[in-house]
Amino acid sequence: KSLRERWGWVKQSIVEQFVNNCIICALRKLSFHPLVAKPIIAKNFLSRIQMDLIDLSFDPDEEFKYVCHVRDHFTRFSWARALTSKRPIEVASFLFDLFHSIGLSPTILQSDNGKEFVAQVIKELIELWPSVTIINGWPRHPQSQGLVERANGILEQKLDK
Fold it and tell me: Which positions, given as ranges, span the membrane (predicted)?
């Protein structure tokens, strides 16, 4: 039998009253509270940079399998370097060369929780620049690493061509 034939006589108001008073329905009811993203405000060049590794090991270019991508939050300017591996020494070498060539160090360096960014070598870089604050976000989490994650997609598209 169709649903209408079997239960068509029950008024909608009775169904609503039943659902509103049903304990099982109340327990199953999901409450949805969207997270309100707190905007990141950068006040000047290198006040906050976000960094991430792009894994290109599925389609390497000779010995290069990764790209370290660093993005300034204020200017939206990006720097990238191809890496042969994601060993901490390679990532740290890129960061050292980058900030040494600019002549400034960032105030805040934000990365995901990848081991290549929280390793001892990165901590040694902080010893060179004691004013740098490290902030670790969630890996592949656009709410915490949104700027660099979006730019990663663009960079990957450009590298594909």
Answer: none
Is 105:45 a contact under the CB 8 Å cutoff? no
Q: What tens-digit pLDDT sequence spans the chain (161 residues)?
A: 576 777 777 888 888 888 888 877 776 666 666 666 677 788 999 999 988 888 888 777 788 999 999 999 999 999 999 999 888 888 888 988 999 999 988 998 888 766 666 666 677 777 778 888 877 765 555 555 667 777 877 787 777 75
CA distance 110 to 101: 20
CATH number for 48-160: choose from 3.40.190.10, 3.30.930.10, 3.30.420.10, 3.50.50.60: 3.30.420.10
Q: Domain ranges in the chain?
A: 48-160
Nearest to 66 by CA among 51, 45, 78, 81: 81
pTM of the model: 0.67
